[in-house]
Structures are given as structure tokens and as C-alpha cells.
Amino acid sequence: MKLLIIEDEPVLRDSILEYLERQGYICESANDFKQALEKVREFDYDCIVADITLPLGNGLDIVKELKSLESHAGIIIISAKDALEDKLKGLELGADDYLTKPFHLSELNARINAILRRKNFDGNTIIRFNEITVIPASQTVLVNNNSISLTGKEYQLLLYFIANQRRVVTKSALASHLWGDEYDSAGSYDFIYTHIKNLRKKMLEANGEDYINTVYGTGYRFG
């Protein structure tokens, strides 16, 4: 899953990025209002964590912009202000959750997980697709009740496919989801082919079905 962290405090921003990347997320960041606005207009995200107080603008205006763009991203607003009016305004504008600084990174992760489950998987703590079972809390994947070992990218790829099952997803969308800002510099889609080949191999070795169908010239359909 692809996240955007909008935070102007370098130490906190780096701590959040490092922690969430260890949890297997693809993370991008913005350190001021202008940069954040450019990113939400250009890229799609699964969840956005936005500080209210930003250089050059206000995080609540980012929430407004996301809603005007009809973005489906989950939104968590964070602020040092423990003011009820900020919380209510953010939630009224369409934010999904609110965290007051200081907070534990594990709590932020739990809230991101809850939003992603609610938006992509109807709030389920266990995700099932035929013989495939995914437990996001522990990043466990079972095929026919047997655990399989996936890399971080393979795990994110599988979740993305399940969340978009039976839809055609383009190679560009997959590249952006797996690689974030850096996918343009990859030069080709070879890394996508490699991850898909490895994921398919591990699923088949566990006697699972091959649900990854190539849509020639476009991308893939799962299921």
C-alpha cells in the first residue's frame, strides 16, 4: 500500500517514514503545503497522513483538495494542537481519523491499518480470496492453510491485486504502487515482471491457482 506523509518536522517525518517502511508500506513524503498539493494532484495514494500546521499553508486545505479531486485515499490528520475544533473541522471535511502529537508510531500504524481494511476490505481483519488468506496485522499469507514467505514487494503486490480483483490494473499503476516516486527512474517495467513471476511461483508451489492474468499491452487482471 502506498502512503504519503505530510510533515514539516524533519525528525518526526523521518521517524514515521522509517517505521512505516519497515512495516512494508511504500512511503513518500512532503515537507510543506506546496509540495503536498503537487503530490496529491499528480499521484494516487492509499492513505495520507497530514499535519495540520504546515509551511505555506494548512493541512486541512489538503483534505479539501483531496475531496475536490474525489480521491479515495484514507486521511489521518495530525497536530500538536489538542483542540476540539481542529479535530471536528478535519473530520467534517472528510478526514478518517485524527492523532494528537506526541503519539506512538505503533498507534499510527494501527490506525492506518484500520482505515485500509475499512476502505479496501470492508473492515475485515482477515482477508480471504478463495484459497488465499492474508492476515495484515502480522503480514501473514496462507495458501491452502500453508504459510508462504513473501518479500515486502510481493506482499504489497498481492494485497493490491486482491483489493483490485477482477479489474485491469495497468503496469504504470503497479509501478507507482510498488516503487513510489522512484518508479520513473526504473527505466522499464522489468522489476514488475520479476515480482509477479516470483509471486506466481510461490503461489503455485503452495498448490494455489494462478489468478494473475496478463492483459496484453495494458497490464494485469487478478481473479
Structure description:
With 223 residues, the protein is α/β, with parallel strands linked by helices. It has two domains: 2-121, Response regulator (Rossmann fold); 127-222, Arc Repressor Mutant, subunit A. Helix content is 43%, strand content 24%. The chain contains eight helices and 14 strands. The strands form four sheets. The chain has a five-stranded parallel beta sheet with strand order 2-1-3-6-7, with helices on both faces. It has a four-stranded antiparallel beta sheet with strand order 8-9-10-11, with helices on one face. A hairpin with a 4-residue loop joins strand 9 and strand 10 (140-143). Helix 2 runs parallel beside helix 3 and helix 6 packs across helix 8. It is globular. The two termini are 19 Å apart. The model has no long low-confidence stretch (mean pLDDT 87). Residues 124-223 bind DNA. One of its GO terms (cellular component) is cytosol. GO terms for molecular function: phosphorelay response regulator activity; transcription cis-regulatory region binding. It comes from Chitinophaga terrae (ex Kim and Jung 2007).
